[in-house]
TrEMBL record:
Name of the protein in question: Regulatory protein RecX
Membership in a protein family: Belongs to the RecX family.
Domain of life: Bacteria
Keyword Metal-binding: no
Keyword tRNA-binding: no
Pfam families given in the database record: RecX_HTH2 (PF02631), RecX_HTH3 (PF21981)
Intracellular or extracellular location(s): Cytoplasm
Residue ranges constituting the RecX second three-helical domain according to the UniProt record: 57-98
């Protein structure tokens, strides 16, 4: 079955919609264009058009990503940074994204998440309970110093 082919104009319109629907990073857009069978020159042309017309903005993407993952998924800063690095976001934009997270809100969210998770752990063994809570919080990307202090505070 032959792959659908797109003219430069069609691909540009399609990607404008793709970027308007939600914030995207450059890597996602390039991958999408490659999947559409576009040649490298066309990809570069379309990406520069999207940047010029403000459909594509990595700083805006990074900020939106960080806010969303923190507010909705309750991820810690380490996990957010790791995920942004996977998407080839610059150090400057990663730092800018982390500044979107209020420090007081960050600690309140961490506290609430730790307490909620502790209530869900049914283990009677204190060491197993500590390990399960710590593993959960570390997996979510919270800083180890925060995690171990909180685990020792909540389980003694």
């Amino acid at each position: 079955m032959p792959k659908e082919s797109f003219t430069l104009e069609e691909a540009t319109r399609k990607l404008e919609g793709y970027c308007a629907y939600q914030e995207r990073c450059h890597q996602e857009v390039v991958t999408k264009l490659q999947g559409m069978g576009m040649i490298p020159l066309a990809i570069d042309t379309i990406v520069s058009h999207l940047i010029k017309e403000n459909y594509l903005n990595e700083e805006r993407f990074a900020k939106s990503f960080a806010r969303g993952k923190f507010n909705i998924k309750k991820w810690g800063k380490k996990r957010i940074v790791a995920e942004l690095k996977v998407r080839d976001i610059s150090k400057y934009n990663i730092q800018s994204a982390l500044n979107e997270i209020d420090d007081n809100q960050y600690l309140k969210t961490f506290e609430a998440l730790a307490k909620k998770r502790l209530e869900q752990i049914k283990d009677k063994d204190i060491q197993k309970k500590k390990k399960k809570l710590a593993d959960y919080l570390l997996y979510r990307g919270w800083e180890p110093n925060l995690v171990y202090d909180k685990v020792n505070e909540l389980i003694s």
